[in-house]
Amino acid sequence: MAKKRSAPSGGGREKRVESSTGRVNSAGGRRKLVAFFVVSSIIAIVTYRFRQPPPSEPYVYQRGLVTIHANYQHVLAENSKVSQNTSRRHYTYPVLGYITPWNSQGYELAKRFNSKFTHLSPVWYDLKSQQTSLVLEGRHHADRGWISELKKTGETLILPRVVLEASPAVLLGKEKQRNKAINLIVTECKEMGYDGIVLESWSRWAAYGILHDPNMRNLALHFVKQLGDALHSIRSEKISGQKLQLVYVIGPPSSEKLQEHDFGPKDLETLSEAVDGFSLMTYDFSNPHNPGPNAPLKWIRIVLQLLLGTSGNRAQSLAPKILLGINFYGNDFSLSRDAGGGAIIGRDYLTILEKHRPELQWDKNSGEHFFFYTDDKDIKHAVFYPSLKSISLRLEEARTWGCGISIWEIGQGLDYFFDLL
């Protein structure tokens, strides 16, 4: 995973009633004049109410900030402002937010916007090979006080991420080792009071080159199913009747034609009963050697079509388990001959805006904002960073499919992003 106008003022044309040179002496004239002002007042009140945003509408919509016409002044002035009611959820499907120890702001934002999430996944654990055995590392990252505060103030489930760093030959090749790995994970959940885990392993297995081997691929899928079943056999301490959950991290297919190492629709169906959600990493589309948008909207649609197909029944049954990846980080690419640059987070983005005051441009093909600037060494840069409009479009796309979302990661964004959730 990667390390990403003001509303028009109210009121129409003013109507002015100029007094006549003649006096209104009759009672009928006075009644007509009173009636005129009463009707005018009612019309004004009704017009005003219709022009105002609904009370429950997020602040960013009230201010007209979710627009392709974004500019750096509004970002700098508004990025820390959100609706007063931070507990109201606007996105009704599951929302998972990742948090990293190296970006501690995410912990505070998780507490502040607790009710916006159904799942929170602190990035804490690695399962590693230790000679011929296995060891689960990462408990030293776990913050029990933070977990306790979250449980007191909301219903969000805590599912720390576990990355399988262990060699597949050690982990998958022997049943005893597979059982040991599952026991380590389940025991950690019980001892720490977690609601399950987020497992990341597919990209590691692809890097080891084992997924083209049918036997190893089957063992890999069997391990995930076995882990899901083991977690489902344990009841959550937090919610009566709730089983421990497994969310599985999957990468997007690398092309419109599935490759051997890709996680495809058959794999999705195979694991659908044992896995409660699939965290789909639909970001990192571009890189320093191929600068461009972070997650083009058309590409996201292609990925979802590849996984869910065009069949209505299949999409309806599996789409709710897809957690479409949305990046809260961006990229600052150097456009020099020696390509460079990389990920930036919210505070980096604000610093660049303040220093260079660029013109934000909208790319309708990718559905993202971007801008150019020239640094102190006279090198031109292209910056792609999420905007309220780009995020809202991705939420709309996920909603259309009936998918949840997963955010990498919440400490990397701007406060007003949360107003959309």
Largest sheet report: 8 strands, parallel, barrel
Strand content: 15-25%
Number of helices: 14
Tertiary shape: globular
Radius of gyration: 26 Å
List the helices and strands in order.
Answer: HHHEHEEHEEHHEHHEHEHHEEEHEEEHE
The order of strands across the largest sheet is: 1-2-5-6-7-8-9-15
Helix content: 25-40%
Give the gist of this structure.
Residues 93-421 form the GH18 domain. This protein is of the alpha/beta class and 421 residues long.
What does this structure look like?
It comes from Psophocarpus tetragonolobus. One of its GO terms (cellular component) is lysosome. Keywords: Lysosome, Membrane, Secreted, Signal, Transmembrane, Transmembrane helix. By secondary structure, the protein is an alpha/beta fold. 36% of the residues lie in helices and 19% in strands. The strands form 2 sheets. An 8-stranded parallel barrel has the order 1-2-5-6-7-8-9-15, surrounded by 5 helices. Strands 11-10-14-13-12 form a 5-stranded antiparallel beta sheet, with helices on one face. Helix 4 (105-112) links the parallel strand 1 and strand 2. The chain is globular. The model is unreliable at 2-55 (pLDDT under 50).
What are the main properties of this structure?
single chain; 421 residues; alpha/beta; eight-stranded parallel β-barrel; 15 strands; 36% helix; disordered N terminus
Topology:
Blueprint: H1 27-51, H2 59-62, H3 72-78, E1 95-99, H4 105-112, E2 119-130, E3 133-137, H5 144-153, E4 157-158, E5 161-164, H6 168-171, H7 175-192, E6 196-200, H8 202-208, H9 214-232, E7 245-250, H10 265-271, E8 277-280, H11 297-308, H12 312-318, E9 322-327, E10 330-334, E11 340-344, H13 346-356, E12 361-363, E13 368-374, E14 380-384, H14 388-401, E15 404-408
Parallel strand pairs: 1-2, 1-15, 2-4, 2-5, 5-6, 6-7, 7-8, 8-9, 9-15
Antiparallel strand pairs: 2-3, 10-11, 10-14, 12-13, 13-14
